[in-house]
Amino acid sequence: MQSLKLSWCLTKAARLTARAYGREFGVFSPTKQGSVKSLLSAGAALCRGNFQSARHRHHVAIVGSGPAGYYTAQKLLKGHSEVVVDIYEKLPVPFGLVRFGVAPDHPEVKNVINTFTTTAHNERCNFFGNVELGKDVSLQDLREAYTAVVLCYGAAEDRQLGIPGEDLPNVLSARSFVGWYNGLPQDAQLAVNLQCEAAVVLGHGNVALDVARILLTPTKLLEKTDISEQALETLRGSRVQRVYIVGRRGPLQVAFTIKELREMTQLPDTRTVINPSDVDGLDKCIQDLPRPRRRLTDLMYKSAVSPGDKHVAAWKEASREWHLVFQRSPLQVLQDGDGQVKGIELAVNRLEVDSSGNPRAIATDAKEIIDCGLVLRSIGYRGLPLGHDVPFNATKGVIENENSRIKNEKGDFSVLCAMRFNRR
Ligand SMILES: Cc1cc2nc3c(=O)[nH]c(=O)nc-3n(C[C@H](O)[C@H](O)[C@H](O)COP(=O)(O)OP(=O)(O)OC[C@H]3O[C@@H](n4cnc5c(N)ncnc54)[C@H](O)[C@@H]3O)c2cc1C
Fold it and tell me: Could you say which residues bind NADP(+) here (predicted)?
């Protein structure tokens, strides 16, 4: 372990992290410690576990520097004065999806970075960028060197639709689309074609509403955000007039939150279209719902059935519109003679309560088609495998674990961790 750890500390983590982020994150700053050389020996000492002195008896490795990683570090450092935390991150920069996932018109969501930076400045917290678990180091290596290993490496892979036409151009992952408008290098070259009048977004979560909002927001407003120049230019030439946000279940099962829904209903020059029959009867059960769900459902109901005068006037004049579509599952993406997306075929679902009381979408024989030239899928994410020594369930896209603990053959544990970065 020592030589391996030493070599990657010297090469990747130390050099790159030192140069790029040393100043920001303190402990391994070349300016503080004089030179990259001293930084390397500090890294080496750390790798040999020399930090496990009497004062620092527990040395914890955290893999991943998103919200789960930094909240875990914060909790450990606050609650245990003897703990030292090393955060390993495959990218050169910390903060995971807080940096790359937040919509550019929601800059306040990124304020949580201030909290994470405070944690990063703690003298018992070290950050190693450009170190990938499964490639540069194995879980076994970390287990041997640390008291505990916490895996906070996010869910980096999109769930696929698994339907014909999914591979057509302009059938895109919403996550890549977000990366594209946020200037994430790996998504900068995403081929986004907005020369169509209608787009379909599959999924009823906040990411679905984020991408729909960006598609419909006047570019004059987006200019004031830190959206990527390239995306802004493409959006300026957009012909998209209608966005359909399609979910397989009903209004009581949506996963987006009221803030995002309210923003959609208030988009300039954009009409909200919710079929009143989809919310039929909801008024009778709204009062019994827990408060956040009650407010959300109430807004959906009123938007469909009795929008206020202000909305009625604004929506009448609007040149664009978005539709909230329920109980539909994608069957196939349709193409024209040139291999371009021309629509999506959907199954009409009914809801059936399963044995655990959850409403499940069951496809009926009824089908319908929405004409569109762009499909964005936002139906959830999966974890990726971390190398041969980490048991992985490829079907579910999760690491095999018992109550979030991963056992090895010796009975040692690592811990899996996931969380959101704000309450929405
Ligand atoms: C497009 C999008 C937008 C979102 N917007 C919001 C929002 O506005 N508000 C909100 O509360 N939630 C939002 N979410 C949800 C939120 O991003 C996640 O719930 C949260 O980021 C999960 O935190 P995490 O630390 O588990 O994962 P991540 O934020 O994904 O962080 C995981 C980190 O681990 C690193 N990593 C991965 N594999 C390895 C490896 N093998 N070795 C080392 N490092 C590795 C990654 O580079 C990354 O930095 C959004 C999600 C998406 C997909």
Answer: 204-207, 248-249, 260
Using a cut of 0.70, tell me whether the model's pTM lies above it. yes
CA 175-100-394 angle, 5° bins: 45
Domain edges within the chain: 2-156+383-416, 158-380
Ligand 1 atom having least distance to the Cα of 178 = 1
Give 203's DSSP letter: -
Under the banding of pLDDT at 50, 70 and 90, the label for residue 22 is very low
Annotated binding-site members for FAD: 68, 89, 97, 133
**CB-ligand 1 contact for 215 (6 Å cutoff):** no
Q: What CA–CA distance (Å, rounded) separates 120 from 81?
A: 15
Residue 261 contacts residue 296 (beta carbons within 8 Å): yes
Class of domain 2-156+383-416: alpha beta
Is 203 near ligand 1, meaning CB less than 6 Å away? no
Distance of CA 196 to the CA centre of its chain: 27
Ligand 1 proximity of 102 Cβ (cutoff 6 Å): yes
Of the CA atoms within 13 Å of residue 191, those in its CB half-sphere come to 6
**pLDDT above 90 (res 242):** yes
Pick the range with the lowest mean pLDDT from 54-68, 86-100, 202-216, 287-301.
Answer: 54-68
| Three-class SS of 214-249 | HHHCCHHHHCCCCCCHHHHHHHHCCCCCEEEEECCC
Which CATH number is 158-380 given?
3.50.50.60
Annotated binding-site members: 68, 89, 97, 133, 204-207, 248-249, 260
Residue 128 Cβ < 6 Å to ligand 1: no
